[in-house]
Design goal:
Blueprint: H1 2-12, H2 16-44, E1 50-52, E2 67-71, E3 82-85, E4 94-103, E5 110-115, E6 139-147, H3 152-159, H4 161-177
Antiparallel strand pairs: 1-2, 2-6, 3-4, 3-6, 4-5
Length: 180
Amino acid sequence: MGWIGETIDSIKSLQIRQVLSQVISLGMIVTSALIIWKGLMCLTGSESPVVVVLSGSMEPGFKRGDILFLHMNNDPIRAGEIVVFNVDGREIPIVHRVIKVHERQETGDVDVLTKGDNNFGDDRLLYAQGQLWLHRKHIMGRAVGFLPYVGWVTIIMTEKPIFKYILIGALGLLVITSKE
């Protein structure tokens, strides 16, 4: 009959109590992941403590698919640091290096200009129309570490959604049909 037939027979033989137990287990896994994410947000001070590099603009330092770990504190941002920032009107954060820092004498606020290591010019064309500098509110965090290539899973699932649905379906089926 094969694997699919055995799986269907296994689902048919489940009792309501087993199904509820498996659904609660799945809910606990999802809740645990959310708690860990929120905890990381509190520890790092960043709204997104982990990001995936989506383009080759930071090569050779960071390649597409690398995962970056972010931290944000009140220390001043300096030229040479790698930051992740959001630009008004864009959903996806950008990972680039700070090339210039401008401190306003009257307020002490710091504005920064960024550039991808593999790009020819600065990022002013990426900023919102009329914006010449990034302000602190745009910066999500500073890169403090990375894992090479691990983010390819995220990139593949985003670019080819069928893989995401297959994985979610397979994991759900695995949780529902497990006998423990």
